[in-house]
Amino acid sequence: MKPGADDGRIGLRANLRHIGALVRRCALQIKQDPESMMDALLMPIVFTLLFVYVFGGAIGGGGGGASRDQYVQYLIPGMMGMMSMSIAMAVGTGINEDFRKGVMDRFRSMPIARSSVLIAKSLVEVGRMLVAIVVLLAVGLLCGFDLNGHWLGMLGAVGLTALFGASLLWIFILVGLSMETAQAVQGISFLVLMPLQFGSSVFVSTDTMPGWLEAFTKVNPLTHVADSARGLMLGQGAVAGPVMWTVIWAVGLTVVTAPFAIAKFRKKV
């Protein structure tokens, strides 16, 4: 980016062109390096098979096949939020490596809005989230998951999960810009991910947890995402409350963290 280039001097139409060009660039990079999609393609398969066939019988109540089938119905909608969070983590590592490898140096000489680089990265990562969710649902159907005709609810759950995942991207972008190495980014990200994923209703009902942990799960945004997906896809449980809280979390995280991430990016470039 040219020294002194400012987003305010670039019109909306030009900014959109820049974002489109950067999205195409990222898509071409994925095409040239298919291994960068391995996490989005393999993670849903591995986690679904692991929890359904290794833990499903025990977690589902020890009733063998019947309990496993019931657990599949509970697990798959909940794991959608987990997939969005896990994919979002990768953007922090990626942007940290871009700075380390000098990729961002190339953008300094271009008269483009600084925010367009981050927005383009976010759009590509949302696309990867959607791929991971589609793979998850496909594997879930093969394992016995049944939508019972709630196809519109499934689309709503996918959109809501993508919205929440997009808000998480800004957190991990900020982490990636703040840490010195990709290893440090991964370490911090896992410290955030693990309590949120396992201290939620993604894998088991929160009623089975100790009181202090159940209190944490009730304010955990991932619990709201999981409960929203179950309500929309299965028609079970409350829907309005979890959906409302998911939207509030998504908007709140974006409003709070996106300006800091963009300001940090501007400072570094």
TrEMBL record:
InterPro entries: ABC2_TM, ABC2_TM_bact-type, ABC_2_transport, Nod_factor_ABC_transporter
Segments forming domain ABC transmembrane type-2: 35-268
Transmembrane parts of this sequence: 40-59, 71-95, 116-139, 151-177, 184-204, 243-263
Domain of life: Bacteria
Keywords: Antibiotic resistance, Cell membrane, Membrane, Transmembrane, Transmembrane helix, Transport
Keyword Zinc carried by entry: no
Cellular location(s): Cell membrane; Membrane
PROSITE patterns: ABC_TM2
Principal subcellular localization: membrane
Membrane topology: Multi-pass membrane protein
Protein family membership: Belongs to the ABC-2 integral membrane protein family.
Name listed for the protein in its UniProt record: Transport permease protein
Organism ancestry: Bacteria, Bacillati, Actinomycetota, Actinomycetes, Kitasatosporales
